[in-house]
Amino acid sequence: MRLVPALAGPFGVPEAEPSRAGAGRITVQIDGVTKVFPAGSGSVTALDDISLTVRQGEFVSILGASGCGKSTLLNLVAGLEAPTRGSVHRAGEPSFMFQDAALFPWLSVEQNVELPLKLRKVPRGARRDRVAQLLDMVQLGAFAKRQPHELSGGMRQRAALARALARDAEVLLMDEPFGALDAMTRDVLHDELERIWQSTGQTILFVTHNVREAARLGDRIVLLTSRPGRVAEAFPVDIPRPRRIEDPDVAALAGLVTNRLRQEVARHGR
Amino acid sequence: MAGDVTPFSPRSAEVAGLDALEARAANRESVVRRGWAATWPKLLAILIVLAVWQLVVWTRWRPEFVLPSPVDVLARLWSDLQTAALWNAIAITIRRGIVGFALAIVIGVVVGALVARFAILRAAIGSLITGLQTMPSIAWFPLAILLFKLSEQAITFVVILGAAPSIANGLIHGVDHIPPVLRRAGRVLGARGLDEYRYVVLPAAMPSFVAGLKNGWAFAWRSLMAGEIIVVIAFQASLGQLLQVNRELSDAKGLLAVMITILAIGILIDSLVFGTIERRLREKRGLVAA
Lengths: 270, 290
Hints:
By secondary structure, chain A is an alpha/beta fold. Chain A is 34% helix and 24% strand.
């Protein structure tokens, strides 16, 4: 097992065969992480003693109400921020997808997807092939030459997903990537993401505040408390794939998790 | 890793359906149509100005040899355009404009990039740059003449001082207003250090930078005219100098013909060069109101 600290340089080629969730090697290891932000004269503890182990090919939904430090957690794993205490290790530099597609408006769709390859100095011919393949994967082949502003919100997120996949990272971090989309588009994108994830064998950390979405997608739901963020409970999701958002099992689990989340939120009202 | 994924998915049809419903239709108007739409209001404005001018002439507010009619002036401009003298003057003035503006770009970009990058420089000279922008360029000429005598350098010096602050400010403003999410996206995609500047910061700042260039050109052209009237250099009959000569000869028609030439060059460069670049940038990024 090779793991590197979150703030260290890139990591070698990922090992080939994707393994069953829970059985593979560890790709993200968070140990007793606390993150404190200075606020005015005092300070705010965003995350308090969080530990989490994620294995290769696992899809982990991270769920919590406002102020649970979900985004901070992803930033720590991405190496965009350093923990106050504790340690974060991950396999290679992760890729990241935001709620905002954050496509570069001066580049066409294909140029956006090409940029991470260019930054890794992939030769031109190989770049072209890879971009075409990624765009086909997210079904945007016909829109390769369009500018981002000519796309719908759902198409932009698919382009952003293709761009994130172009990093060929072992770990993909997703910060409420479908939060701003309508229900129909989101539903289709859940299927697309599941399909792509199953074929790439990547590890995904997926932050959301939508309980149904967390249950629909994850192998595991990690529920965080708010202010400070702690791991309240972890729910394994033993529902066969491919799933649908309307599956009764998904709904039942979402109900269970929602109840737990309600208790957590009510605690702050007292 | 992701090499063997097939594009087919059970929901391909739904994806295609949503795309077709939601994607904006590409809107491409013909060049001729757009060109005409942009041109006719300008032509109309020119006609109105000429009509008002003609009306003032008809009121006999000033004698014709002081304020000639537009028809006479345009006729004079037409005949001047057949002479080498006017074209030489245009060439001299435009050459000065281009040299001064090019140097202003170099200086403006270097200063702007440094101020945008280093907080201490911003604190030190950020407001000074804006201050320089408000300084009338003509106020620099006494100093410029002391420093460089009545020479081309004196003119170039003032042109640079006129244009560089706008160019620097355009770049600084552009860098300051990059949406943070784009810089974050660049960083997580692996754009660090110089790559971040090349692939994220500079392209993101481009619209504001071009606005700064456009502004800078207007300042440069104004400073240049002031310079050519004040700093008279022998055997260099520039446009500004032609203005002076015509005034001394009380040649009102010639004077107005040169003024129209100066105005036309300024407008042409502004709209053909900077206007075109600006429009392309905005269209590409979807910044044009539909």
